[in-house]
Amino acid sequence: MRIGHGYDLHRLEARPPDGNGRPFVLGGIQLDHSKGPVGHSDGDALLHAVTDAILGALGEPDIGRLFPDTDPANESMDSSVFLKEAVRRMMARGFSIGNLDATIICELPKIAPVAEAMKAHLASLLDCDEACINIKGKTHEKVDAVGEGRAIEVHVVALLMSTPD
Q1: What is the C-alpha to C-alpha distance for residues 126 and 16, in angstroms, rounded to an integer?
Q2: What's this model's pTM, rounded to 2 decimal places?
Q3: pLDDT in tens, 94-144
Q4: What CA–CA distance (Å, rounded) separates 22 from 164?
Q5: Domain ranges, ordered by start, for the chain
Q6: pLDDT in tens, 5-60
Q7: What is the dihedral of CA 62, 59, 155, 38, to 10 degrees?
Q8: In this structure, what DSSP letter does residue 107 have?
Q9: How confident is the model at residue 74 (pLDDT cuts 50, 70, 90)?
C-alpha cells in the first residue's frame, strides 16, 4: 500500500466582467456561486488535490510539474484530464484506490448538498466504489482569506492498494 497527501488552494474572485473568477467547478460538479476560482486550468481544487494525492503516493512529479501553468495547452483545461493521467499512472504501477478522504474548506458554497454528486463523479474517474471515497466540507470560521470567502482550500489523503495479479 502507498499513502499520498494532496493539497490545493485557489483564490476566489467575482466572475467576469467584475473579476477573473472562472465558473465554480468542484469535483467535476458545476456549483452556483457568485465567485469562482482563479486558475490557469478550470480551477477545480478538489480534482487538483486528488491528482496530487495519487501522484504523491506513487512518488511521481506533482500536478504543477506534469501540467505547468506556463503551458498554453493547459489554459482552461478540464481538471479531469489531469486526474485521468494520475489514474493511468496508478493503474500502470499496479495500484487502485483503497480509500480517499477529502476535506474541502470554504465558507460558500456549502459542500454537504453536493458531496454525494462529487463522490459519484470521483468514483467514476477513479474506477472505484463510492464507498471508498469520503468528502466533507468545513469552514474557516471567518478567519483568513478562506474564512473571508476569498479562497478555497482542499486537503486529500489517498490510500493506494496493490491490485491482485
Answers
A1: 33
A2: 0.96
A3: 999 999 999 999 999 999 999 999 999 999 999 999 999 999 999 999 999
A4: 41
A5: 2-162
A6: 999 999 999 999 999 999 999 999 999 999 999 988 999 999 999 999 999 999 99
A7: 0
A8: S
A9: confident
Q: Is the peptide bond before 37 cis (omega within 30 degrees of 0)?
A: no
Give the mean pLDDT of 61-71. 93
Rg of the chain over all Cα atoms, to the nearest angstrom = 15
Pick the closest to residue 44 from 60, 58, 25 (CA basis).
25
Interior angle at CA 43, CA 48 and CA 7, nearest 5: 35
pLDDT of residue 109: 94
Which fold does the domain 2-162 belong to in CATH?
Answer: 60s Ribosomal Protein L30; Chain: A; (3.30.1330)
Q: Which residues pair with 103 in a beta bridge?
A: 136, 155
Q: Are strands 133-138 and 95-105 parallel, antiparallel or unpaired?
A: parallel
Sheet harboring 95-105: ordered strands across? 35-37, 2-14, 151-162, 95-105, 133-138
Is 34 within 8 Å of 139 (Cβ atoms)? no
Q: Which residue has the cell 493547459?
A: 74
Strand-pair partners of 25: 30
100 DSSP 8-state letter: E
Closest C-alpha among 25, 48, 38 to residue 114 = 25
